[in-house]
Amino acid sequence: MYLGIDVGSTTVKVILYDSEYNIIYKKYQRHLSEVRQTTMDMLEGLNEYLKEDSFIKVSLTGSAGLGLSKDSDLPFVQEVYSTQLSIKKYLPDSDVVIELGGEDAKIIFLTNGFEFRMNGSCAGGTGAFIDQMATLLNVSMDELDKLSFLHDKIYTIASRCGVFAKSDIQPLLNQGAKKENVAASIYQAVVDQTVAGLSQGRVIKGKVVFLGGPLTFFKGLQQRFVSGLNLDDESAVFPVNAEYFVAMGAAIYSENENEITYADLLSKVKNSENNKKLTNTYQPLFSNPEEYEMFLKRHSRNNVERINIEDYEGNAYLGIDAGSTTTKLVLISDNDEILYEYYGPNHGNPVEIIREKLIDLLSLKREEIVIKAGAVTGYGEDIIKTAFSIDFGVVETIAHYMAAKHFNPKVNFILDIGGQDIKCFKVRNNAIDSVLLNEACSSGCGSFIETYAKALGYQVKDFAKKAIYAKNPIDLGTRCTVFMNSSIKQAQKEGASVEDISAGLSMSVIKNALYKVIRANSAEDLGENIVVQGGTFLNDAILRSFEIELKREVIRPEIAGLMGAYGSALYAKSLAKGISSLISFSELEAFTQSSTNTICTLCTNKCHLTINEFANGKKYISGNRCDRPYEAGKKNNIPNLFKIKRKYLFSLKGIEGKRGEIGIPMGLNMYENLPFWHGFLTELGFNVVHSGHSSRKTYTLGQHTIPSDTVCYPAKLMHGHIEKLIDSGIGHIFYPCMTYNFDENIGDNNYNCPVVAYYPELLEANVRRLDQVTFHRPYFGLHRPKDFEKKAYEYFHEHFNVTKEEIKKACKSAYEAQEKYRKFIIEEGKKAISHARDNNLAIVVLAGRPYHIDLEINHGIDDLITSYNNVVITEDCVSHLVGKQKLAILNQWTYHSRMYNAATYVTTQNDMQLIQLVSFGCGTDAITTDEIRRILEEKGKFYTQLKIDEINNLGAAKIRIRSLMAAIQAKEYSNG
Amino acid sequence: MAEKSEDRIIFTKKMKQEYKILLPMMLPIHFNIINKLLLLEGYQTELLDTVGNDIVQEGLKGVHNDTCYPALLVIGQLINAVKSGKYDMNKVALLITQTGGGCRASNYIHLLRKALKHNNLGHIPVISLNLSGLEKNPGFKLKLPLIIKMVYGVAYGDMLMWLSNQTRPYEINKGESDLLVKKWEHLLTEEFINPINLRMNKVVDNLSLIVKEFAEIKLSGEKKKKVGIVGEIYIKYSPLGNNNLEDFLLNENCEVIVPGLMDFLIFKADNRMVDIEIFGGKRIKYKIIKWLEDFFIKMQNQMIKAIKENSSFRTVAQFKTLKSLVKDYVGHGNRMGEGWLLTGEMLELINMGINNIICTQPFSCLPNHIVGKGMIRKIKDNNSDANIVAIDYDPGATKINQENRIKLMLANAEE
What is the mean pLDDT of residues A619-626? Predict the structure, then answer.
């Protein structure tokens, strides 16, 4: 008999064959991280079929099976390999196998060259991801599946990892998108992830077999895969026992192993319990119960007075914090006491929850209480403000500062960890001096603990309690949640208890906040007076971890979860005049909300809009990147160099010429060098055709040929641009490799980054359809004009029989065209600056790489900034105004040098601020961001960084920009 | 390229007498030799052999977390040592390699200084070890004889690594290969005391002797899977960076093949010439570099000759073979980080019949997007037996995920 045991990240699967390979037993069970015990229980269940002295052959497989096999000394087979074995046995004519597990996703190409792939270390889109998303929607996995069938629309959800997707989904929910559509979109994200992350250049076609739990149980997911991969009933195979294929493969593999008795097997697995060893652990959070008591006592001091609303007479102020996952609401008195409070999850519909709570509140309120004003903050600020006619909207940072100041007027550091945001602000001179938000990759910490607790079958409160007395908290690392998942897997493998995991998670959340977001080196960096807040800090384990890590006591207001709402109420109070515009009790009762979807046609962005209509006749539009849908036709006349540069570049059209068409992919350094190549090639008689603006579609067009899923988004888009050009039927594509950039004498060297420099070579090696065209990717350097002329002659003479005279002329027009563009930028920059000064507008230098002006790369951040009445200029408008800077880093990339210079210049101009755009995954920006921050902060300027990638959501960008502006205002105010 | 010196602490002649110089561990055998060479020059160097989670933690605190993992580890290791209390904080200097070039790795030294400042250790001098004349210090001069010694050291290091990798998995008397490595590390550096041994001929003799001694190690005839390791230079060699990859593979019953450092040296020299060929530049500079490259190549040829004449060991590849192999893949102008050399090493391994390859890199390594991960598809298209797995290393990546992927690669190696 053959026994296969598949111990995965979330489940254990056991299969028992007789000697003829008939299945006599199978079982599938979640192990809730009790790996050994669950396996043991399942094996003991075999006693109906096996006697103690029955001989069997056995092998283990699966991600958590490896550790168990080592400790129990049982044979192990890698899980993809075992899948291959069972496929060979049951479905030998398959071409491709796609297997989704709890935390792994795998693809195996069986025909036309065997190949296998597993998800990289930065990839979600797996069972755990769907689990997490279902929790977010507050439905069970089965309900999610059912909902997905009722969709009428698919939203774009970032497919790279759970955290990203979450930050796409949350705003959708908050903006009233239908759960049915979100459910189907979640599945679509899984499909996209599989195609983008795993197929990497191979086309998924032929007979495709789908395996693993999620693909067995969720029919909606099956449907999305079938339609997403253009398969039919014949070619898409969902076999019986799909969830057991890996275990079956292990059983088949065991054929060549030695026989052991059933009793032996049981004792081996049982004894493996003794081989526990824990690698990296921390000290316990509390060494004894007394210490915990003291801790609780100390923190209970920071409370707010409550007054029974029925006993109060006088003015009152309403504060609402419509957060990403929770809704908070308070009503305060003239003396800042709390009259009414609510804290709870928003279940994806903050509007409904707030309506309920307002009805409750207004029914308690008597005539003796006058609500003077209300303010709302958080993700849902706009929609709530519109729906309920709240007086004020306030940016989250200000709301939290107002609240923190109430507890400690000297507060100089506030750290707020919410459902999926980490926010922290430094306070200097009574104003918010710097704002830090977590980057997309480490967000989701609070809700991650919740999801994880639920996955293990605990309420988050109980899960947190477990941490308090953990003996060996595990070090789980400090990256995004996907990484933590696998660290947990490893810890489980080593036999860690739930207590230790819970405590370890708390430490990770804190270390994330401290070292990834705040980038702190020591407690001194944070200052003396620290206030922590946000729902996540209600968890004692997290609070304790923070104090341990900082070696410092901090203040956690007893209303840590309500601070946003409380601060909003204080804000409302500070601005209150007359009576609040809040809608009435009867209006609330008659309140209705309906939402429709449409595509905005006012510009090329083609935003997907969700229009919410409320009973009061008010409309709330979301999904837009600018104000145009509100004020159709009204033009934004504020100078915006992003737009001006785009217009210039896209006005460079090809001219019919004797040498025919040549294509240029419009991305990366082409946003810098297009004028040059356009001038050069046009002069040579080529009709220059470029691939146009990028869009989400450009990305999808090329995503199947991206070999490295951690490269930056601008590079990924190039694949689509190449496909676009090939589709257009063009014969030649020109995209040179360029180690060097122009030398502007502002750095120690003039390099491009490796990705910009050599991406053409990657495209050639991975975009198979490039065979259909002639792809020109010579090495050229434009920084040495004479050498360029020589080299260009060699190349173009060989390939196009171009003469020396022609090259000479072409070089002349090329350098002239580039110089014209450079001057144009400087001139337009000057104009923009004087427009700003004439009209008393602030100026923002939106600094980044030239290709950040691409619409799909910046997602309309430039428009967003001008919509707040700021003039937008670029780094190359001002970088020539100062000389080469002495820096603390090696200054050898031209694009970087421009940013350093622009930052330096900004420090000399009172009305200028710099905002840096950073593409996610940009390795060189790990260096520039710190240095630009240093340049700005040393001279008392604010530093604001916006990280961008395929995520199409400007929520975080908005908060930062608004906070920056609030901080500038406060600073100006305090300076008089 | 040369930088202004006023913003850094210069390592003075006086310091040479008084200061302890700490070296991070990068390539175990080679750095041992280099360390000994420096000791013989009168520097009080110490090669750090520290390991453990504290190094990672120190790195995470001191360096931007999105910086590449090697920077984080090297800087973490140095700062961790400085803070350990083992050294006089006012009498310690740090040494770090500096390559220049368009990869962000050329910033290690600056990031180290930043991290020192953050830790209020800005007074500690940092010495750049480079062959490009990047930063100069009166108390630490790479004079020609020392450079030549170091090149010999690299040749010895490569030879010891190359041969011991071929004997270690099969040796009948366990530990014999490592003992031989230790013996020669010591012997060779002692020899350098006497300038008379600073001759190519002597080195050639030694190389032959080394080969002969390794050829005497008794080997079992068993068959093992052969696995090549290529990748980003630090992660590829450093056990701290790659979670003891070589040990893991040995335990999995594999023979490990790691291309040597000499290729990298030749590559770096070659780059400068190619740069001039492609983009233009001064001929005189070209000639000096050509001389240097020829010297490296001569060394490599001697290594090959020594192996061929004295044993049946697998020989190292010639640089020019590597260079010709990448022709249909990447240009020779692709030089940032490991550049085309990395692609070349994968192709050369396959040429040798070693189809199982682990391509290691720090998470999100910029050059390796192109020359590593970016070329695997095409290599597989052209070599159907190629069995390549790319593994990312960073502070958050867990050993279990890495090992699982490697095991999958190994499982398919049996096919």
Answer: 67
| Selected residue of B343, B400, B402 to mutate for chain A interface (largest A Cβ count, 10 A) | B400
Say which CATH topology domain A422-554 has.
Nucleotidyltransferase; domain 5 (3.30.420)
Give the residue from A740, A885, A927 with the most B CB atoms within 10 Å of its CB, the best one to mutate: A927
Task: Give the pLDDT of residue B357.
Answer: 97
Pairing of strands A314-322, A369-377: parallel
Q: Which of A122, A511, A890 sits opposite B110 (nearest CB)?
A: A890
Does B401 lie at the interface with A, CB-CB under 8 angstroms? yes
A739 vs B404: CB contact, 8 Å cut-off? Answer: no
* All CATH 3.40.50.11900 domain ranges in chain B, comma separated: 225-259+319-415
Lowest mean pLDDT across A436-445, A814-823, B118-127? A436-445
Q: What is the pLDDT of residues A96-119, one digit of tens each?
A: 999 887 777 888 888 876 777 776
Q: What is the per-residue pLDDT for A442?
A: 44
Q: Cα A492 to the chain's mean position, in Å?
A: 27
**Shortest Cα–Cα distance, A616 to chain B (Å):** 49
How many angstroms separate the CA of residue B398 from the nearest CA in chain A?
A: 6
**Mean pLDDT, rounded, of chain A:** 85
> In this predicted model, what pLDDT tens digit does every residue of A396-450 receive, in sequence order?
888 988 899 999 989 989 988 876 667 778 887 666 666 776 654 444 466 667 7
Any A CB within 8 A of B374 CB: yes
Class in CATH terms, B13-141: alpha beta
B3 vs A: CB within 8 A: yes
Q: What is the pLDDT of residue B4?
A: 40
Interface test with A, best of B128, B364, B412 (most A CBs within 10 A): B364
Name, in order, each residue with C-beta under 8 angstroms of B110's C-beta and a sequence gap of 6 or more.
Answer: A888, A889, A890
CATH classification code of B225-259+319-415: 3.40.50.11900
Of B369, B398, B404, the CB nearest to A711: B369
CATH match for A309-408+566-589 among 3.30.420.40, 1.10.260.40, 3.20.20.70, 3.30.750.24? 3.30.420.40
**Residues of chain A above pLDDT 90, percent:** 42
Q: Which of A377, A348, A516 shows the shortest CA–CA distance to A440? A: A516
pLDDT at residue A482 in the model: 53
Give the bridge partners for B225, in sequence order: B254
**Domain locations in chain A as residue ranges:** 309-408+566-589, 422-554, 642-821, 823-974
Position A634 scores a pLDDT of 47
The tens digit of pLDDT for each residue in A338-389 reads: 999 999 887 767 888 898 899 998 888 888 889 999 999 987 888 888 888 8
User: Chain B window 222-281: which residues touch A at a Cβ cutoff of 8 Å?
Assistant: 275, 278-280
Are the Cβ atoms of A121 and B401 closer than 8 angstroms?
yes
Q: How confident is the model at residue B347 (pLDDT cuts 50, 70, 90)?
A: very high
pLDDT of A947 reads 80
Is A478 in Cβ contact with B60 (below 8 Å)?
yes
Strand pairing category for B20-23 and A944-948:
unpaired
- Within 8 A of A521 by CB-CB distance, chain B residues are 61-62, 118-119
The pTM of the full predicted model, rounded to 2 decimals, is 0.82
The DSSP-derived string for B326-379 is GGGTS-TT--STTHHHHHHHHHHHHHTT--EEEEEEETT-HHHHHHTHHHHHHH
Question: Between the CA of residue A914 and those of A264, A847, A907, A933, B100, what are the distances in Å?
Answer: 69, 7, 9, 10, 29
CATH 3.40.50.11900 applies to domain A823-974:
yes
